Amino acid sequence: MxxxxxxxxxxxxxxxxxxxxxxxxxxxxxxxxxxxxxxGSLLTPALAVSHERGIKVFTEGAPASDALAxxxxxxxxxxxQDALFMTGKxxxxxxxxxxxxxxxxxxxxxxxxxxxxxxxVSMVLPTNDGFIALNGMKGPKKGKTKTYYVPxxxxxxxxxxxxxxxxxxxxxxxxxxxxxxxxxxxxxxxGIHGGGDLVAADYDWRNPVARxxxxxxx
Length: 218
Known about the structure:
The chain is 14% helix and 29% strand. By secondary structure, it is α+β, with helices and mostly antiparallel strands. It has one domain: Sandwich (Immunoglobulin-like). Strands 2, 3, 4, 6, 7, 9 and 10 form a seven-stranded antiparallel beta sheet that branches. A four-stranded antiparallel beta sheet has the order 5-1-11-8, with no helix packed on it. Helix 2 packs antiparallel against helix 3.
């Protein structure tokens, strides 16, 4: 029997326990629903972190951190999570499962009166170093909802050669993170052009690629 694509994604990236959620908080929670708006791209298991203001995962037009490069090239969220918690301003984290085209996942992320900002990251597959993100955005007030339509970003940490040997996941099964550089700065992803092993008609997109709805609940 053919394995579901979500399971193939987890196996190919070495992910276990990918449907995890953070525990609910008596202080309050952000209910986060992520919808994949693409026709053929996968979103790897997303990491969401609640934190104090002043934290950014990246700066547009500046080089990606090593932690972000690992996420964007391999789908590994742990380095980003570690980097955020090392600031001393992170509060809690939660992880989703893989998000198939046209599908949604919902996770609960604890927050408090002091901790009202959210960062979220997920790799876009199949790409060399594409990802989606919320970059230190302020969450909604109690009982309110905020909706974000997010583009695909390019970490600029790997060249977009579109060769499967350099792309992990169920579509290609290639290499994940590699320290070799790319364009050198974070920018809006140009999409899939069919210059390597990928067929643009199957995997290209027009931004935005995801809808992220955040509701403040108790």
